[in-house]
Design a protein that fits this description.
Blueprint: E1 4-12, H1 15-25, E2 29-35, E3 42-47, E4 56-60, E5 71-78, H2 81-93, E6 99-102, E7 106-112, E8 118-124, E9 127-128, E10 135-136, H3 143-154, E11 161-162, H4 163-172
Parallel strand pairs: 1-4, 5-8
Antiparallel strand pairs: 1-5, 2-3, 3-4, 6-7, 6-10, 7-8, 9-11
The chain binds fe (ii) ion (FE2).
Fe (ii) ion (FE2) binds at residues 7, 9, 73, 75, 120.
Amino acid sequence: MKLEVSHTILNIKDSNIIIEFYSKVLGFKVSDQGLIGGAGPEIIFMSQDENEHHQIGFSVQRENLDHSTQLNHISFRVRTFDEVQEVKNALEAKDFEYLPLCHGNSLSLYFNDPEGNTLEVFFDTPWHVIQPQTEIWDTNMTEDEALKWVELTFKDKPDFSKIEDSKKEFVNRT
Ligand SMILES: [Fe+2]
């Protein structure tokens, strides 16, 4: 399997200050923001690259600023569905637990390293849908079954579109 670093999510305290800094100082654009699971915490996704829905994300759940940073998770992309299965099998072989979550635009596995750092490995789907989205997916599905399930599950959600169309929209966003 080949893992490419995709994005990092940090826990933050003040979304206004953080959005201001990452947009005005560093030149990121907000790609989406909303409440995880409809109830919270709030999450803000930012990117400078239309090929990456978010290069960095911020989950508004940090309570204090005592330490220099607070990592929520690091995410790695794999280019094939089979590599997701490879990661799953490697985790199962060592008795690591994992959570299979689908964001509509990805089929992801979330798991912790031995010191509790959260990691995500994901495979892109051909679609975009407004974020955040989370549904558990059945890792026993084949790639075809999984992609059909994703389309059925998310096609009625806001902004559901082909990923290429959503990339064009993001490039033109001011
Ligand atoms: Fe993620």
